[in-house]
Design a protein that fits this description.
The structure is a single chain. This protein is of the alpha/beta class. Helices cover 36% and strands 15% of the residues. It has a single domain (2-268), classed as NAD(P)-binding Rossmann-like Domain (Rossmann fold, 3-Layer(aba) Sandwich), CATH 3.40.50. It has helices at 2-8, 27-38, 68-75, 93-114, 148-167, 186-191, 195-207, 229-233, 264-268, and strands at residues 18-22, 42-46, 58-61, 80-83, 118-124, 170-176, 178-179, 192-193, 212-217. The strands form 2 sheets. A 7-stranded parallel sheet has the order 3-2-1-4-5-6-9, sandwiched between helices. It has a two-stranded parallel sheet with strand order 7-8. Helix 4 links the parallel strand 4 and strand 5.
């Protein structure tokens, strides 16, 4: 176990290292794959959706998060895993538990069995979406998820911490903001994560010398809600600001940061009958 921890502390370069990306066909996954290939990483990209390799240094495959044995085989020889896979929004809790919670357990357990040094976990700002808009939130505050999706991310972060503490795997969790080309609402003016800053956040998570960490992956928005110090500590320095897209709109400071995601209907409408 100690060898794994020490090895994780040496992963400060990307060129020539082999990374597995789950959920690689999504918006963030596609952008990250391109950025990492530009930096000469060797990629194994997997998703339940079909993909086309973006270059000669990438292999694409279809692997279900439910298949632990297949994940162990896929992770063999990898320096690290970037876990983007899962249901990306509110859904019936049973589905979220099966895909987001058990699936994340499978990723971490496969990493342990395969001897992978680091897992970078795509968490979410929705984990703290019930804090009021007038609050300034740091990663160490107690979770207040705005829905069952946020609950699944609480569980995912807890699993990451367990595997870091008990099994010596380096785990870095990014609470991803609103990933968009530009902010499209008053809420996104506070939560916006630009594509360029998203790449910066994941590069920092892949290369930091910290053994375990949680930080908000969000741009340097003038009216942002979340503390950026934890990101700075792992080497993430966002460069973009939502204010460049126009004047910031007012938000009621008592309204949950999750906005519509925090409304009862956003959850109940997605429950199975």
């Amino acid at each position: 176990m100690l060898d794994v921890v020490l090895y994780a502390h040496t992963m400060t370069e990307i060129a020539g290292t082999r990374w597995v990306i789950t959920g690689a066909a999504g918006n963030i996954g596609s952008a990250l794959r391109s950025a990492l290939l530009d930096r000469e990483a060797v990629l194994v990209s997997t998703d339940v959706r079909s993909m086309t390799p973006l270059g000669p240094q990438e292999v694409v495959t279809s692997t279900d998060l439910a298949d632990l044995a297949a994940l162990v085989e896929l992770f063999d020889g990898a320096h690290g895993v970037i876990h983007l896979g899962g249901i990306p929004d509110e859904a019936d809790f049973h589905d979220l538990a099966e895909v987001n919670i058990v699936g994340t357990y499978h990723v971490l357990e496969a990493a342990r069995r395969a001897g992978v040094a680091r897992v970078v976990y795509a968490s979410s700002n929705r984990l703290t979406g019930f804090y009021p808009s007038g609050a300034h939130i740091a990663p160490h505050v107690p979770p207040r998820p705005d829905g069952f999706y946020g609950v699944s991310k609480v569980a995912g972060e807890a699993l990451c911490r367990l595997y870091a503490d008990k099994f010596g795997i380096s785990t870095i969790s990014l609470r991803i903001g609103s990933y968009e080309q530009q902010p499209g609402s008053a809420r996104e003016q506070r939560t916006w994560l630009s594509p360029a800053d998203a790449v910066r956040a994941f590069i920092a998570a892949m290369t930091t010398t910290e053994h375990t960490a949680v930080f908000y992956a969000v741009s340097a928005n003038t009216e942002g809600w979340w503390d950026l110090d934890a990101g700075t500590a792992v080497g993430f320095t966002p460069q973009d600001d939502a204010s460049q897209w126009g004047e910031t709109q007012h938000i009621d400071p008592h309204m949950p940061q999750g906005g519509v995601y925090a409304t009862p209907a956003y959850s109940t409408d997605r429950m199975r009958e």
